[in-house]
Request: fold
Amino acid sequence: MSATHDLLLEARAVSKHFGGVKALTEVSLTIRRGEIYGLIGPNGAGKTTFFNCLTGLYVPDGGGFTFDGRPLQADAPQRAAARGIARTFQNIRLFGQMTALENVMVGRHVRTRAGVLGAILRNRATREEEAAIRRRAEELLHYVGIADRAGDLARNLSYGDQRRLEIARALATEPKLLCLDEPAAGMNGAETEELKVLIEGIRKDGTTVLLIEHDVKLVMGLCDRLAVLDYGQKICEDVPAVVQKDKRVIEAYLGEVPEDA
Amino acid sequence: MRHPVLHWLLRLPRHTAFLAVTGGAILLALPFVAMLGGQAWVRILDLAILYVFLALGLNIVVGFAGLLDLGYIAFYAVGAYTWALLASPHFGLHLPFWVILPIGALLACLFGVLLGAPTLRLRGDYLAIVTLGFGEIIRIFLNNLNAPVNITNGPQGITLIDPVKLGAFSFSSRTEIFGYTLTGPQKYYFLLLALCVLVVIINYRLQHSRIGRAWQAIREDEVAAKAVGINTRNMKLLAFAMGASFGGIAGGIYAAMQGFVSPESFSLIESIMVLAMVVLGGMGHIPGVILGAVLLAILPEALRFGVVPMQQALFGKVLVDPESLRMLIFGLALVLVMRFRPQGLWPSPERKRELLAGREGRA
Reply:
């Protein structure tokens, strides 16, 4: 089991400020291979900012990341995706006018190579790659449980299905680390339960998961370890049982009497 | 082994095959039918196809990648002047077309990248303004590059440009084939038709490829496209470069066909016309773009031939100049289409489906 304890991601003193607002102050954390790692905290604590720094949408003002043994150049999202970091968005960002299947096919872009000439000539290699892209996309739609919606425009899917589609699209990039930004937001109890099963399945199939979530029950039940952010600072990082009892976390986020947990 | 075209036709559903065959037959017969109305009509057909070609080129930039380009005609100008300078008495150069057309395409492509590289951070309106300025800059350059060294011959333009020639076979003169005399415009028609079929195939194949999907993804949501690993900068540059190359090729053929180019053929209104063809027809949908291009290319000519005699018959004199009537009708058509069919006259099935779904959802 030594591989499970390999470090996949190490964040070292990551800072980001917008003008005078310190969104992140020297946040350091480590994510191990194969774990489900939670990132929680009150609104505005800097969780999504951390995601954006990690996935290259923002350039951190200080600190940096080591991913999979090598430093991560945090300046271009497409490079982060190529290295194996995929993400979903808090406010779902699908390609609305494309079908569900096409959305996932776009996710294969970074792992495929056909260029303009291939597209125009449609030689054997291009046709085979295209068929493989389609096959993989169909598999992934099946995997997240929306195979029957393959031909529908993404914008016409139900909210829950859109979340699933976004996960399928992210998985299509063959990530080592899948970052989910509030995947359960707006879901009812049954949907959240299905989502939990899905995320556990993803981890079992070998993808490490980083999860931002407000649903405390989901986070505590799902995550191996978690970090708590407050005002851009990490105030705690440990297994759920310890985090739940941490005084600062209770003060900042969980509230005095955590009834659910 | 059956012939591949025959094979392809036999595999199509019956009514599609029927449409393909009759459509092909009509396209082949068209220049002979038009000839009955006079040489001028064949020329109009030629221009219509040239506009289809141009519109399909712009469709890559605007329709596929969603980059609003208001200076597209600049690439057309680059292609046209490349041909004019390399195949006319102006510099005494008379290079063959298979040398000039690639040079024109490459130069236009280069200009496409030159325009694209600094503007890629811009979106929507801002990009439109910069491209608009770029288009005008090219035209003004062409207008003024006659001093101190005379390169473009300024506003007088360049005359006596060589036609497209294949050995001794010139596209501008009459030829006897099977006892029938083919006129120059008729030959250009077939040349342009062949090129157009090629560009339709290229458009179609690009759209349904990894590249086409990446463009569409950028158009839909650039941030999400980046997040799944698409190099948006390169993809946008590629769209600009490809669109520009097609513009360059169209420009070269135009110069050869007309035998004359001058800066005033490449004004802003031309860019707007080509863009309107793409938008009116149905952005990103190839048949729609073709329809838009044909309609808008034929409209002014139809007016010229229809309105003047009509006015003379009704009022005994011409009250409204067909040129101003053209802009009036064109503007009205734009407003009406944007009001009642914002997706274009012939949108792609997905867009139509989505609009219908939207309506049902509201009801």
